[in-house]
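Entry:
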Amino acid sequence: MKRFLKISPYLILLVGFALRLYRLGANSLWYDETVSLYLAQSDLAELIRHTAGDIHPPLYYLLLHFWGRVAGWSEFAMAFASLWFGVLLIALVLRVTREWLAQNIIAIVAALFVALSPYNIWYSQEVRMYTLGATLGLLSVYSLRRMLQHPKIFSRAFFAYVIFSVLGFYTLYYFIFLMVFEWTWIAYRGWRIASHKPKTVHRSLITEYRLLITFLFSQLVLVLLYLPWLPIAFRQATDPPVPPWREFIALPRVILESFSALAFGQAVDWNVFGFVALLLFIPIAALLWREWKASRNSVLENASYAPLQIKNQKSKIENSVSAVFLLGYFLIPLASIYLFSLWKPLYHVRYMFTYSPAFYILAALALVNLMDEFQNARRAANTRWLYGLGALAMLVSIGFVIITGFSLYNFWHNPQYAEDDLRGAVNYIAERWRPGDVILVNAGYAYPALTYYFPEPLTRERLTDEPTIRPSDQPTVLMTGSIDGAQNLGWGDPRSDFYATTADETRAALQRVFENYPRVWMLRIYDTVVDPQGIIRAYFEQHATLLDDQAFGGESQARVQGFITNTARELPPNTTRVNKNLGERVELVGYETGVRELERGSYFDVVLYWTLLQAVNFNYQVTLQLLNANGENVAQYDEIPLSEILPMTRWKLDELYREPLRVKIPPTLAPGEYRAIAKLYEPRSGQVLGDAVKLGNVVIR
């Protein structure tokens, strides 16, 4: 048994690492993660400028910036940084619990809970700052206790506490709620000292007050170190430059969702499993009640529960923590967030992760306490308690394992709990975008997904900017603003992602876009936040023809829509007219091509202009091909003309339809001259309507 306990920490770390490594980077990044990547890939000056106009401090993005330069910018590499801090958190929980509770078995169980926790695994695979924030939070609380145990003010623990705390503030603003707990604990400690006679305390009042002065001095140093960012943080808190997107959440849901996530992760129904988590909290509540009764006459907090057996009473008082302390560690921040939300909504279950280590330590303490009670019942031959506690422990263990496994399966494999598939949405746009098209992002601030996943460099502009942007061969992204939003959005910075506009300004801008771009691709995500009245959606319904509409998985229900903005009434001036009759049903009126001298791996672009001579009852397909000197097909692209939503069976007679096509030049294609042709065919039989249309020669370098 002793040998197993000796190697168990390494086994727990290995299991925790394996669980966090499984499917790391397999799913798409969601919006917040793409923001992390966008900022990390920026130069340092732009990173700081952009972060100063957003709602999070810059430390995590700076770490990701330098990590990406070493590890690369793949989803796997970026998520590995969170994984590293997630595994470090397991080791820290083990180390801290061993010192605080002075029993190795409690430390091992706490570390095991963290290693298996779906909540921890979720954020250990997310490209965000939460595992870093929780790690710094635990180090801050741990260093604070050590600092107050040291006789000197400027001890190593003093500097460790200040450094970890200030790094926490530079990582996550919600770190302030952890400080609320620390301040509350110090205030409670001071009250206990002031309300008891000195003879009941093992130290003198002078010593205790000196420790309080040490804490106050540490807060002063912390403020001085945070001073460069403090004005920015204050402005972001009091005058947010972003549109409000959170709603107030009632206390019952806050409790159920928080406990459900802490116990079983976010890939289960919190309505159901929140109650289960509260039921499992009963042993912890019993432990708290017993400790309160046992320690109500003591002055300093100490571990007065049965599992702890420490010979040196002074060491016991100074190094151990109580269950009430651990409860306050994760409950006081939650209560503070809720109370603050009565003024401005702040709660989201993800932010509880910063304070979550205490929950798992407390759960381990309760479990070991339950095991000790079981042993006491056995010694006392109290069969009633023996069987009752044994059955309870068995049910709790089985239930925990089953629900944890269910949650992890959902997290990894159930589409219902998958992150927004922005990778799929952007790839869908990239496959269908053609020169002359424009991409509209509504809400505009969601463009980081495009910058990360789009295979070509993007030009990015605000929708309402003047002068009007003209079509080009490079992809252009237009960012919509917050219609009728607060005028303080983006603080008036023209480079900000967030800006206020009006319905009339938006309609006028869309009219200019429709006059200059024949097709618009729209990425719809969070659009109800910035366009609650549906102004943009209504404009497209009234003035454009839907070309494509594809939904993608995820909580935010991302959607890609393509539109034809205007109907071509005559051929553009640079078009080659052919008037090719295909099977007496369809006429290829003309075509225009892009660059005819191309590099391998690039695209050859063609725009075909069709008109329908008679109604058809079958959706034909068009193929664009490159042929070598021997007439062999070396590159090909096939599609239904226009789209599956607007195929030839829905076309109007004698109306001109514009269809952009592109074929990729194989990277291994030999340099030389090739012929481009287009054919219209019936896909089931392969029968070609009429003859192939010659589109000229293409030179491949």
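The longest strand covers residues 603-612.
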